[in-house]
Amino acid sequence: MSNSKRAVVLLSGGLDSATVLAIAKSEGYECYALSFDYGQRHQFELQAAEKLCQKFDVQKHVTIEIDLRKFGGSALTEEIEVPKDRDEEVMATGIPITYVPARNTVFLSIALGWAEVLGAFDLFIGVNAVDYSGYPDCRPEFIQQFTKLANLATKAGVDGSGEFNIHTPLIDLTKAQIIQRGITLGVDYSQTHSCYDPNEAGISCGHCDACQLRQRGFENAGLTDPIEYQT
Amino acid sequence: MSNSKRAVVLLSGGLDSATVLAIAKSEGYECYALSFDYGQRHQFELQAAEKLCQKFDVQKHVTIEIDLRKFGGSALTEEIEVPKDRDEEVMATGIPITYVPARNTVFLSIALGWAEVLGAFDLFIGVNAVDYSGYPDCRPEFIQQFTKLANLATKAGVDGSGEFNIHTPLIDLTKAQIIQRGITLGVDYSQTHSCYDPNEAGISCGHCDACQLRQRGFENAGLTDPIEYQT
């Protein structure tokens, strides 16, 4: 049942998860990419995810639909205005309104289910504790706790056939470092989508937290962001 | 944000979760019932859940669709034959083919997301370590670990505004004791559905593990199961 070179990679289609996919691939994993359609505004991420899967030759790409709008509670899934042009300091404090309740817990749980079916014990997720310090489920202690849970929640936890490992290769990197790493590994960032509030054509707003962090990342890396922004 | 009398109750529409709903209600909780349509064969459970919500006057009932068939790996979601007429001893050993990978982890994670939106800190789940000893995610240590995770994964874990509690009132009860408890609390078990493999009219098979445990439970409780079985 165990297949140590299979990995489930959470792939939103954003800059971070694109880099994570490239890292998993570079480490020799046979990648199974998992995306979620959870009623998010930025559906363009899903199209980006599809392109990345082709590029990085993933074994299988599954998109799970799960309508978290039924609960409400986040600007990403409800008709609440996405905050724009916030200071970096403001962004770094408190929990952003764009936080989706228990999102990473839900995503990792579903990834765990797939891993169990595949006989895979490696999960990859692009959480980052630098830029998103306000998200409780991006912290290292959350990941450690989820790993413990994974090893209790599954067949492997009962029969000892393997041990789950949650890989978070970006957790301590700045956005600029993530971009530099990705470019080394052949990520074409023009194929990624980050904006929380794109227009109907999918063009990024340039002003939401995600756009600002992305733009600043390219700037700090001394590079030009290859995607188009609304003028 | 905290509302200590709100609870999210996982409600499949089966005998166990119906009893859990009655218990939560009897303890004074304002109940928010959560069901899942995960491509299971026993869709009749969902209809049963709806009836139970009316009976127990739940505040809101949400059914989340999540297509776990995309992963495969279980007789409940794939076209694998549901095992019939198994000995109690066989049932109690090993992990049954009807196990859905990481199911309770996924369900509890989504319940946690809703609880966070509601400002609720109490979750109720009908896991049972007596009859389903083969399911890794029905064990007390799994529940303890999930509780720790919940308190790290959420806003409350960051701002200390509350502490999550996962209630498992059935965990140490036999099926007969569950039924007796439910009857005391007014559960009408004719409104519940347990069978893994009902016919097209929703009539239970009487031979799958769920039917057998149910029938034995009523027998041991000295009661008659009010539902109909295929002859």
UniProtKB/TrEMBL annotation, chains A, B:
Gene Ontology terms describing biological process: tRNA queuosine(34) biosynthetic process
GO molecular function: ATP binding; ligase activity, forming carbon-nitrogen bonds; zinc ion binding
Cofactor details (free text): Binds 1 zinc ion per subunit.
Cofactor(s) needed for function: Zn(2+)
Residues annotated for ATP binding in this entry: L11, S12, G13, G14, L15, D16, S17, A18, T19, V20, L21
Keywords of the record: ATP-binding, Ligase, Metal-binding, Nucleotide-binding, Queuosine biosynthesis, Zinc
InterPro entries recorded: QueC (IPR018317), Rossmann-like_a/b/a_fold (IPR014729)
EC number per UniProt: 6.3.4.20
Chain sites annotated for binding Zn(2+): C195, C205, C208, C211
Pfam annotation, one family: QueC
Highest taxon, organism lineage: Bacteria
Catalyzed reactions per annotation: 7-carboxy-7-carbaguanine + NH4(+) + 2 ATP = 7-cyano-7-carbaguanine + 2 AMP + 2 diphosphate + 2 H(+)
Gene3D superfamilies named among the record's database cross-references: HUPs (3.40.50.620)
Cross-referenced SUPFAM superfamilies: Adenine nucleotide alpha hydrolases-like
Pathway linked to the protein: Purine metabolism; 7-cyano-7-deazaguanine biosynthesis
Coiled coil: none
Annotated PANTHER family: 7-CYANO-7-DEAZAGUANINE SYNTHASE (PTHR42914)
Functional summary from the UniProt entry: Catalyzes the ATP-dependent conversion of 7-carboxy-7-deazaguanine (CDG) to 7-cyano-7-deazaguanine (preQ(0)).
Family: Belongs to the QueC family.
Full protein name: 7-cyano-7-deazaguanine synthase
Organism per entry: Thalassoglobus polymorphus
Organism lineage: Bacteria, Pseudomonadati, Planctomycetota, Planctomycetia, Planctomycetales
